[in-house]
Structures
1.
Amino acid sequence: MSLTADELENHVKTILSSKRIKNKAVILCEGDISSVKNVGLNPTMYRNLERKPDADFYKACLPRNMRKNNSPQFFNCGSRSDVIKVYVQLKTLHATNPKNSYLDINRLFAIIDLDIQKANIDNYLFQDTEEIFYDLYNELEINHNNIDSHIIFTTGLIHKEAYFLLPLLTDIFANYKNRLSYMNDEFSLKKIYTDIIEDIDKDKDLSANFDRVCNRINFSRLNCSTVGDLKNAFINQFHHGIDNRLIQTLFLIRKIKPYWEKISTRENIDAEKLREQLALEIAKFYADKDDDNFHITAILKSIYRQACR
Amino acid sequence: MFLKKISIEKFRVLKDIYIQFEQEFTPTIFPLGSLNGGGKSSLLQLVFTLLHCSFNKQRHQYLVNLLSILTFPKRDTITTLAKFDIWHDDKEFYLEFMVSDNNFEGQNLNLNVFVEDVEELEQKRLGEALEVNHSPLLKEEKSRQAKIHHLLKSKEMLYVTHFDNEKVLLCKTNLDDTDILSKMSDKVYLAAPSTQVFLFLSEKEKGAVLSRESGGENYLGYINDAKENLTGFFTYDFASTDLIIKSFEKARDKDFEGALEHGEYGEHLKILTAELNSLLIDKTITVNKQLSNIVFKLENEEGKLLPEDLSHGELKKLSIYIWLKYYDIEDSLVLMDEIEIGLHPDWQYEIVNELQEWSKNNQFILATHSYELCQALTPSHVKELEPKLIKAK
């Protein structure tokens, strides 16, 4: 649900008056804004949050050298369209009275999900999220030549959660302290990928935006004549084994969150808490690898470079 | 070792406290928050003193110091002080610490005459080859004490120590093999700022903090004495010079041993230097040839840095790192008070990741006011000492 006009305005004011953003990059992200406060931040407040703020995932992905000094400040800003509105309003409100704001306008950035629908952005370098995507990524790879010209970044896969289930994380799941389950059965990435593929023809959003879907994965040469053909093409390719490129292609068009939410454990730990902690481990993996080829790492590094100019 | 549950009925400002720590969580780092004066430090010190000192006779004086500040009901009562659920050495058990007066089920619990100590003294006096000829009084005392131990054992209780002449600290446990308690006690650590008042010091030692005559200097002396006796006790001092030098010595000796054994020097010194340098920003660390001083230099520049050129936060991280490494603190319970002091908010966040890297298998309980530190974990990691409502008169 989107923020009301009042909520939006209050949120923008909260960010502008946050002392912690002084001389730092500010990164707007999707996620519930109830965790965003300006004063009295303490362990009790954090403990009382129903769940870990979404923006914290990106913070935990920061490579080590970016965490030591002038670490960017992340803010949850509601839905994807709210993030865009907050971005626009922050610029406007800051311009009306820059002396009353801790924001450095040249250090304001946003990371939003690509999603299956596109979102329009007024008065920005690119008209919509799809345009950002095609400029920022070359098929499945980051376009390193263009990245530093971006301010609003889209994920290179459909949603942030798509980065939680990539094949390169196999060892994280296998070595995790608590034995994981998927749909109360043995955890298996293969099973999850199979389910995601099997459900292609049940995905109403995918069907409704089929042209966009086909454009996105045009490079893959999968048969995109109909939704059914696409599903069969994925099934056929998947028979040859788990291929990182194929899974990333799948994650460009299929929502991953419902499958992520089926991960639990038989150990004595609540499933939601488990997934929060697992996401933190995954973020740590990206942070430790510090690999420019990872989408999130490349985006965070670009923001850091731009903010340090 | 893992501390799964703490319950405290009453200890200073702490009342009806129950905290659960989840062994399944990743990482096993738990911030502990409360208002100022909410009892975080008291809780850490109580846990440390009971678990680190109770099962090691040499540390009992510190336990007695802590117990002596409390008041207990006068006669014929047993008061529970704290109960812990613990996992150690693949065993799960509880330890319930209780205070009783001397008169326990009609028996005088006074076990202050340590029969073993008297025997040891006799043995030393007479020479080891001779059998100790027990005096009738000692024999009688030995038999009385055996009876009391038997009585306590039948109630799953252990005698810990006497204090204030007429009080006894007992420990109830469901553990069959109580020998592991001594090993467990060496797996409990407390780190805190040296400006903290430590409840396990004596009245006189604590009084030195406010004494004009001692100017606070003696208090630090007393803390150093305590550190000598309590191996698990550490204070975040300026640069932990002694530990750093000792670590260099240890690494040098290991390299030398390697040379003697295999004909080649090892890389311990090199690795230690690299690890320490990785904690510093644009600086390097080494020790002088005499191994009497630490030397800091700016990277790629000649000349050493003066103490005033060093960042407090950097040195604090260095001292925590060297403490964990030098004592090889692993599979332990590490209680840390106000770790965030002197650290920039970015570093407060980062210290959680660093603790994880420096010693992976510990359980850390971090008494803190820092939101940033908590952000490095999930909300369910954070524990709280909630303020109790004051009843209207």
2.
Amino acid sequence: MPETTQFAGMGGEDSTDSSLQANTVLQRRYKVLGVLGGGGMGTVYQARDLNFPDVRKLVAVKEMLNPTTDPTLHASTLKTFQREANILATLNHPAIPKIFDFFDQNDRVYLVMEYINGRDLETLLAQTKELPIDKIIEWSIDLCDVVEFLHTQPKPIVFRDMKPSNIMVDQFGKIRLIDFGIAKIFDGGTKKHTMIGTEGYCAPEQYKGDVTVLSDIYSLGATLHHILTRKDPRLEPPFSFAERPIQDFNPAAPDLLIQVVEKALSFEPQNRFQSCVEMKTELENLRYKPVVAVANGATKAAQAGTGSETSFFAGLDSHGTIEPRWKFRAEDEIRCTPASYKEMAFIGSYDTNIYALNITTGAFIWKYPTHGGIASSPVVDQNNRLVLFGSEDKTFYALDYRNGKISWSYTTQDKIRGSARIAPEVDAVFFGSDDGHLYALGAPNGRFLWKYQLGEAVRSRPVVANDLVIVGSETGELFSLGLDGKRKWSYRTKRAVTSSPFVDIDEGICYVGSMDGFLYALDASNGFSSWRFRTNGPIISSPVVEGDLVFVGSADGHLYALNAQTSKEKWKFASDKPIIASPVAYQGAVYFGSTNEYFYCIDINTGKERWKFKTDGPITSTAHITSDTILFGSLDKTLYALPLVGG
Amino acid sequence: MDLFRRLFSQANTKTDSPTPIETKPPTEVVEKKPETVMTNPLSTQPVEIPSMPNIADGITRPLPPETVISSSNEHLLFGQATDVGMVRTNNQDAVFSFVSTSRSATQRPDFGLFVVADGMGGHHDGEKASAITANMVAAYITNHIFLPMLNSDDETERVPITESMIAAVQKANADIITKVPDGGTTLTAVAVIGDLAYIAHVGDSRIYLITKDHIEQITRDHSLVQRYVELNLLTPEEASVHAQKNVLYRALGQSETLEVDALTRRLPPNSKLILCSDGLWNLVTEDEIAEIVSTHSNPQEACDKLVALANTHGGTDNITVIMLKIPAH
């Protein structure tokens, strides 16, 4: 059974000296116009066939460098190559490019074939955000058809290297299979024997050098999986498709299509489709009953939506929605994060007040009016029995949390929007001001300890860890200071750092988001950055670490869960509006609000929604979670207290 | 690749045509492991490890008394050893170590860079590939991480270290594809800055983190059998004797698209890090590694000892090992 494979090592070779120059004429017939692609084993040129002087007939000319200098070997490789080219020349199928000519010139071998005006699927995936499902089904059917054609030749041909980059979509939207394994014989039969085909798309048995028609079916499944999920299998361990369920990445994919792909991807060859015809028949069911397929998908989505909520809240509420324990309505937006101590909850509002409420009932206890909106989150200092916060009236306040009486205050040069951090070990409080300074004050009495000039407004909440105070600035820098206010290190991002740093004490890693869209991981002791992870929108949300995962929200609307050691994405959850609030990880779930007005509870391991709760305004407030209550504010002016369930 | 490795070892045995030489194996080896020596056909060959005459004794030494070092002067220590083994005629492994330690007002953390690359491919392609890789990665990381560290006034934006590590490996990969199209190599590199290890890894060379009573493999083998183990198709024991145990699904020199594992680990005080090629871990168990590492305070002695033990167990492949000793602070 002749087997085919593709050029080994396409691309990557930048040595232009071996390439043909434009206007070179081969065989007095093919005038090179330019390079279509190229790499290690040779180059593919676009050329014009001069035998048609009156029309512009374009052809693709593949050039293969012959790497062996041994004359006997050279002759034999050439012969095998020729034989294989002959086989291909006899293949007559609309999805297989026509072969026109084959010759040897200047120690190089050339294959002249049909020029396909189009893009390969890998390029198409990179250039599009979404491909229509019915188009993918069409292509799948056509791919089954052409592979079946190869498999049913008198001497069956195993394509062996099905993958998006070997599939072209021509100007008519039809698929064409390219890169038949002309180059196989040039592999020299050495190391490629263990890696025939392309890693990621290869069937398990192919790794053992054991290739059958069923291996093509696996690779076809792998290719479809890649197209549907947009997750490149070459970047994942082999045979890990089941770890990336299609429905997680492409909710539009009909169940039946998913089942077809999953069957093709069976680990054991005998569990796959036993022929491409079988697979094609299944896919055709999808094509001819599009209404049913769509209905299935819709029903499934609807069921999933209600199913998770009702099962989760079974016995809680007959309507399957979560009911707040209580709500507290302020007179203006609530942007900051609530705090609590024992039976009391504290929240600031843009109505200029800080409120103390009973955490169980929501009953009002006291309020303290300032002269500006409160964006800064209150923090509780248990030792000194204080609740501390800043106001846009430029003043930082410390109140007796029992009665709301002022203990001390400190006025800065500009609005205070950043939240404070207490360092009990030194009895100090740290906070930033729009006047560009980070302030350190004695917590019991507000005594000035030091301030540090950070250039621009400081809205990020400082973190204190390992005798360092780390805080972001609107200049884009992250600063680390000693507890004495001396600079230890700084790290510059491209845009403002409004996000508050988080330090994983065990690992000594500091995580922070930036308006430049990246989440950064830095060595907290010296500021060397370990990695950064790009999201598609500014990060204002503050990261949090739980176990080996780090979570952060982005203005691109996603909440991300990343492996803290490797920065690899474990899952992401899409809300349809920016996520400004910071996630809170608690007992197997992640809680956060979105500016789409919903508050979410997400499974920490799967990234699946457990429940959501609708408010009447965007949520920028981060949740505060106690043993039985979730507190968060919304721009609808309301502080919500939800029961903590299902943790 | 396994075919290649196998082909290669067969070729070696042929050319070597081992004639029994009446050289007594080192006596201590016989005393220590008589069965191994008796059943091992390679034991008739001389054990030639000239660089370490007193170390290839296969015995475990008592812990020498720890010298008390002033903690402020304690720094990263390393040992490094590589050996062709008992079967092959050439060493396709490449190894690189570099440590910088300084004390000044700038409080620069210690920097260490360690690279193990296990080449594969005939016609010397394997050793070329591993050599190119080790040099390329070392040069890139020196230029992009170490030298900027020395110029601490340099306020330009600093690229995250793992990104530079990955870029170094990608560059080496592109280089191999161009320069040694039939060669390939594994690559396991670690840059240590202070007590944080930044790791880049492709293939089946390994890194172990050894603490007081625990040894942990912190890299993941990109081998087919490891994948089978992860999928519960093989037990680790079955994997260690599997016919395909040398087949890698990821290596440098395979394709332009190369996914590099990158991870960051905090190294606890007094912990040790072992980087090694499969020539070590195929023949020396994790327990043996942990034992030798924890009983030798001198990292070089431990490395020599580990190589000697792999050779005692057959030395079927090239053996490379680097050991790092993290200060107590």
